[in-house]
Amino acid sequence: MEEYQFYALLSRMRYITRWGLMRNTFSENIQEHSHQVAVLAHALALIRRDILGLPAEPDRCATAALFHDASEILTGDLPTPIKYYNPEIKQAYKQVERVSADKLLAMLPEQLRDSYAPLVHEDDESVLDIVKAADKLSAHIKCIEELKAGNLEFESAAAQTRKALDAMRLPELDWFMEHCLPPFGKNLDELE
User: Which of 76, 80, 150, 192 has an alpha carbon within 20 to 30 A of 6's alpha carbon?
Assistant: First the structure.
């Protein structure tokens, strides 16, 4: 009987911690992050489709978001200052991610590989902008939550992520940031 390791490896996403160079008030792993990105991508796609009246596939966006960091199971989470230090490193890291994604896909039955390939490789253009926006939004929410806990370590990261979000110029993202982002800075009593 042949065994396929893909799903067992995916379950190890919970062991890969994000924000490794930062002092955190609470840790975050890529499994938790991927769930939040999926929820946010689904929301952004719904806003695009149902509020703005533009074409979007919310379920497809959510699914792609679940797998957007899957290659990090094999590579780990490289800190952003290194990952984007210069174009050569960024390009080399993209190649490492592609090799990792190919290795993961090879751990599936051949009949399932074509279904997972656009998710693991993040190359579905119809959802890529939404998943990228949700990924950056998740990072910004982490910064807001850390600042709310009094952790000033995340002050510059909050400013950088907000600037990146504003630069995306996605109407659904702008709508979310105006209507849904402010409550993330509130405590539980204020939310009720």
Answer: 80
Distance of CA 30 to the CA centre of its chain: 8
Q: How much is the pLDDT for 93?
A: 73
> Which among 151, 9, 166 is positioned nearest to 73, based on CA atoms?
9
Output the domain CATH number for residue 36: 1.10.3210.10
Given a cut of 70, is residue 41 above it in pLDDT?
yes
Q: How many CB atoms lie within 10 A of CB 173?
A: 24
Contact 29, 15 (CB under 8 A): yes
**Residue at 166 is within a domain:** yes
Residue 17 lies in a domain: yes
Q: In this predicted structure, what is the pLDDT of residue 45?
A: 98
The amino acid at 112: L
Structural domain includes residue 188: no
